[in-house]
Amino acid sequence: MDRNGTPPERVWTRFLTERDKTDLARRTDKRTGFGKRPAVLLIDLYRSVFGERPEPLLEAVRTWPSSCGLAAWDAVPHIQALLAAARAARVPVLHVTGLAAEGLVGSSRGTRAKFEARATDPHAIERERRGYEIVPEVGPIPGELVLRKSGPSAFWGTPLVGQLTYLGIDTIIVAGESTSGCVRASVVDGATHRYRMIVVEECVFDRHEATHAINLFDMHQKYADVVALSEAVAHLRRE
């Protein structure tokens, strides 16, 4: 709320029609809420989406076709703040990145086909090799789990559920990319497994502004609470 008691405008508001807004106004905003035992899940914060340095999207994709441009780099300080709060509270932090294995066909076959077309370029081969390396700005520290996946969801084909069960986790606080892809897939699967899913708005990002906003809206309506970084950090500080 602002000082006049008005709720802040959400990132998706400007993409909604008047009919959408009217329908939402009559609904009660039901929150999932935080549970008793949270973990922070960082999804796909790897080199391919960042590139080597901050660049506008249309420049970045010339070298790194999967880049999210400045949206990725703009999220870094927010993710760092979330990580700092989680680590200070001794809340488990789990990192998920891509599985780079010879002979394994991943879910992004179009991207792979583009790589194969330019596979004679040694610079492209080197970028492909480094693509799934988690960038050091938000990378794991000793003792934090790193899982590798071959599909969009962090749950698909990984031992994530087993680790969460072992830790007694009931709430997953999500950061990473892309909002419309691997974040959404992981949030839907997490909700399916009956975890309380919390998406930190400033800590997720996508290549396109509209898909970012509308997927946040949809997750907030159905599968998760989309919360501000300040709310997530305040909760972690109470842990």
The strands making up the biggest β-sheet line up spatially as 3-2-1-4-5-6
Total domains, how many? 1
Low-confidence stretches: 1-6
CATH architecture: 3-Layer(aba) Sandwich
Q: Count the strands?
A: 6
Q: Give the terminus-to-terminus CA distance.
A: 24 Å
Give the overall shape: globular
**Number of helices, where a helix is a run of at least 4 consecutive DSSP H or I residues:** 10
Task: Specify the CATH class.
Answer: Alpha Beta
The pLDDT mean sits at 90
User: Percent helix among the residues?
Assistant: 40-55%
Strand content: 15-25%
Q: CATH superfamily name?
A: Isochorismatase-like
The assigned structural class equals: alpha/beta
Order of helices and strands: HEHHHEHHEHEHEHEH
Do you know the CATH topology? Answer: Rossmann fold
Instruction: Please give the largest β-sheet.
Output: 6 strands, parallel
Task: Describe, in plain words, how this protein is organized in 3D.
The protein has 239 residues and is an alpha/beta fold. It has a single domain, classed as 3-Layer(aba) Sandwich (Rossmann fold), CATH 3.40.50.850. It is 41% helix and 15% strand. The chain contains 10 helices and 6 strands; from the N terminus they run H-E-H-H-H-E-H-H-E-H-E-H-E-H-E-H. The chain has helices at 18-25, 47-50, 57-60, 70-88, 109-117, 122-130, 160-167, 179-192, 209-222, 229-237; strands at residues 38-43, 93-98, 145-149, 171-177, 196-205, 225-227. Strands 3-2-1-4-5-6 form a 6-stranded parallel β-sheet, sandwiched between helices. Strand 5, helix 9 and strand 6 (225-227) form a beta-alpha-beta unit. Helix 4 runs parallel beside helix 10 (229-237) and helix 8 (179-192) packs parallel to helix 9 (209-222). The protein is globular, with a radius of gyration of 18 Å.
